[in-house]
Amino acid sequence: MKKIICFLCLCVLVLQAEIIAGVAILVNGHAITLSEISKLQTQMKISKKAAIDMLINERLKDDEIERFKISIDEFKIDEEISQIAANANLSKNALLTKVTRDGTTLQEYRNKIKKQLQTKELMQRILASNISISSEDELLSYYTKHKKEFLLPSSVRVVRYTAQNEGDLQKAIQSPKATIQGVQKINETISLSSLSPQIAQVFLNTPNNEFTPVLTTGGNGFVSFLVKERLGEKAISFEEAKPLINQKIMAQKEQSIITEHFNKIRSSANIITLRE
């Protein structure tokens, strides 16, 4: 009896200690703090409930990474950083300089890349035994129901925003009509056939009256395009569209499988709310 009482007292003390430390929720023993919730709310501009859901899912994902024993060595992290730099048209040193200038330490950045690689590997393992190849009928059905998705323009009318300082460019993106010192605006029409497939896809994925993601220029500057209008749209044939249709269907299936997997994991997780 004394042992039981001592154990209960210990539990109370532990819970009190957790509360004092600012822990709001325990997910399979992993803490989520009030400061984490508040920080995510501010960063993502989301409700407290949405922030809590995201953090719970993050802890569950960490558990799955551990369960699958997914490890990423330093060489893979270096490779990924080099690839990110190449995609941004930067040297590796230039990328890391930019990262530290933005207030992130190199170790924090490496940890972030490691987590991204672990997550990617986890998703691949979850999908490996669950996803099925789309049939011809499935592809044709999608094409028939979503023909507007396969109207591709020959060119796009844009406003090119360029700056040497990314912060200035971001200000211009937030206030497109304002005159921001250090930011140049040029109206132009871009032929998509003159672009690499990857860059052309950036314009195709950007809705009218929205900005493309910020890209780097050859002169260490930054550029973003405000897409104004698509010109010369025409439908591509079913045969031409097949690869794109397959990507879209697979993406839908993948999301469904991932969601179902984590819903199942969450339903059996030990989630304790210590305080609201």
TrEMBL record:
Residues 136-229 form the Cj1289-like C-terminal domain. Gene3D superfamilies: 3.10.50.40, Porin chaperone SurA, peptide-binding domain. Signal peptide: none annotated. SUPFAM superfamilies: Triger factor/SurA peptide-binding domain-like (SSF109998). InterPro entries: Cj1289-like_C, OMP_Chaperone_SurA, PPIase_dom_sf, Trigger_fact/SurA_dom_sf. It comes from the Bacteria. It holds the Pfam family Cj1289-like_C. Keywords: Signal. GO terms for molecular function: peptidyl-prolyl cis-trans isomerase activity. This is SurA N-terminal domain protein. It comes from Helicobacter cinaedi.
